[in-house]
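Before relying on records like the one below, remember that each one covers exactly one chain. Contacts with other chains, cofactors or solvent are not represented anywhere in the record.
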Amino acid sequence: MGCSIQKHHKILGSTIEASKVHKVTTADLSIKPISFILKNEYDFTLVYRLGQPISQSHTAEVRICFLRETNEKRAVKIYKKDISQSKRESVLKEISILKSLDHPNIIRIYEYFESLSHIHIVMEYCSGGEFMTDIIKKHALNELQVKKFIRQILSATNYMHESGFVHRNIKPDNILLEDETEYAEIKLSDFGTAAHYCQGMEERAGTLQFMSPEMIQGNYNEKCDLWSIGVITYLLFTGKLPFVCEENEIEQKILQGNVDYSGEVWDSLSEHAKYFTQVLLCREDSRLSTKEALNHPWLNEIQTVSEPKCCTKLLSNLTLFHYSSKLKQALATYLITQCVPNSELRELKEVFNYLDKDGDGKLSREEIMQYYLQDNGIEEAELLVQGIIDTLSCEKNEFISYSEFLAATFDQTKLLSLNNLKKAFEMFDKEGSGSNSCQEFKSIIDEINL
């Protein structure tokens, strides 16, 4: 679980219900990343060493932590167990939602712990910190930079909405930069207020300055997230929130919806940029959906991205790639999502984003075809793409997920190294009694000549 495989003493006397250790066999093997994000039954402090604090709210603290076995840096969100029962249920719901999301711009969760006193959620560490803190340091963004970040936020939000979830608290504090480089991408985080969405939701959630008028009125749907993204867009363009007033007047200002688009800043921006902001900061029935926003002319004015240098090699190899067994595919999925640091995925992520033309966080048949049609006829390209989808899509969908792409394109010899296989074997055979698994692991080791 999260590559934390060393043997630890179990927590004694815990009254917390814990899923029993399950020996995974190839007969019931599930290959989706969610299958490997599990509750760790051992004491958090035996698996991780705590580092310095990152942030704190009235219910949780986020800190750096280090995996004791490898010293890998991660982040951990810590909830005290003296929270109310409803808050505890909210935390467990947050974990459940994060487990199900597989997108390059959504924070990755590795594992979680629940003891008598705390709940620990272990996630990837984003060294770039909070998005807005970095923006303030840089003083200003040009329109192209704003466009890049908004597209990434929309891509993550669209993926959430298509998965049936609404975030309900999209704001700069909950958007992180994955690293400190100029090419850093954003990661949407803090899913504590996220929920399954439906028409006519009533519960107020999130932060008032980024809250849609219909949420204030108590009857809203997933488009509340689009309002929040509109507020962020306005903030990035102008350096201020659209409703600047005394706190007790904010609700009324939001309900009135009179947004100021006058002044030098707006005069200097393109008409498409201004209109894009306007069709987010408007009545719910006139507001764009995430899919419509991603297809808006302003976002599609992004300069043509050149093909990444490693693209040809990676995608040529992809047509020849195959998994020799279901176990090997599960191994690759486990290792790529749980054990490979983000720093080693940069080139693969660049290629994925290049292929993902509509920015929805998945590679459709049409998007993959678009690439292979450059050097192949229609029939040959169709055969190549069908072979890739048949090989990689664990649920035989008409698309390739982010993790499926990473698992297939990462250096397989490096991914299935002896050290990584040992970590994975501990995961797949907790009690050390799976003789069939042993034989299959041995065949994989022999296959890659380790």
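The mean pLDDT is 84.
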